[in-house]
Amino acid sequence: DAKTTQPTSMDCAEGRAANLPCNHSTISGNEYVYWYRQIHSQGPQYIIHGLKNNETNEMASLIITEDRKSSTLILPHATLRDTAVYYCIVRVLGSNYQLIWGAGTKLIIKP
Amino acid sequence: NAGVTQTPKFRILKIGQSMTLQCTQDMNHNYMYWYRQDPGMGLKLIYYSVGAGITDKGEVPNGYNVSRSTTEDFPLRLELAAPSQTSVYFCASSYPEAWQPQHFGDGTRLSIL
């Protein structure tokens, strides 16, 4: 099963871009990379996902390296409400589509 | 939009008691999931269902049971509560395609004393 490695914590100044790295060196060619976040023990919130190409939506951008061994989630203009734990997940293919959750990155946005 | 609704939000049980955690979704999702999250950790899959009448075990199923009689509802049953089951429980649902994201409820915080 592909697993991910993320830094335990990061700080970012309010208004700046927050760049959250993720390593998934054992990812298979047909496995998606997902990003979720969890604000203060609420239910996880889906942010974005990608397979090979870079992706952008109203919340964030996802940059995936050409070899697919790592990716970066970019929050372009971080606000205090973006303080949360961010999870990078590789979706395991198979009958259960299980998400393997690590401990995530605690992102603290500072005023 | 209600999305995924979990009840109760909080519960304290005594060792050996039983209870059912309720989960319902109004998005007509085929797939539903139960996770638990211990302090400072990521989520672990307990059970999942790909449709009414079909359930299967996840990573940590021991001590739990599920049923799926309708598309909307996916209750989780604890038969003999143990302190190790103290956790936050999240229910989620999704469409069946592999790339579809999972949508989560707000969780049930359960303490076993």
The helix content of chain A, as a percent range, equals under 10%
Contiguous runs where pLDDT drops below 50 for at least 5 residues of chain B: none
Order of helices and strands of chain A: EEEEEEEEE
Q: Strand order across the biggest sheet of chain A?
A: 1-9-8-3-4
Which stretches of chain A are low in confidence, meaning pLDDT under 50 for 5 or more residues running? none
Q: How far apart are the first and last residues' alpha carbons of chain B, in Å?
A: 36 Å
Q: SS-based structural class of chain B?
A: mainly beta
Structural class of chain A: mainly beta
Q: What is the beta-strand fraction of chain B?
A: over 45%
Outline type of chain B: globular
Distance between the termini of chain A: 39 Å
Our Rg estimate of chain A from Cα atoms comes to 13 Å
Provide an overview of this structure.
The complex is a heterodimer of chains A (111) and B (113). In chain A, the strands form two sheets. In chain A, strands 1-9-8-3-4 form a five-stranded mixed β-sheet, with no helix packed on it. Chain A has a four-stranded antiparallel β-sheet with strand order 2-7-6-5, with no helix packed on it. In chain A, a hairpin with a 4-residue loop joins strand 5 and strand 6 (61-64). By secondary structure, chain A is mostly beta strands. Chain A starts with 8 loop residues before the first strand and ends with a strand. Chain A has strands at 9-13, 18-23, 33-38, 45-50, 55-56, 61-64, 70-75, 84-90, 105-110. Chain A is built from no helices and nine strands. With 113 residues, chain B is mainly β. In chain B, the strands form two sheets. In chain B, strands 2, 4, 5, 6, 9, 10 and 11 form a seven-stranded mixed β-sheet that branches. A four-stranded antiparallel β-sheet of chain B has the order 1-3-8-7, with no helix packed on it. Chain B is globular and about 40 Å long. The model of chain B has no long low-confidence stretch (mean pLDDT 93). The chains are: A mainly beta (111), B mainly beta (113).
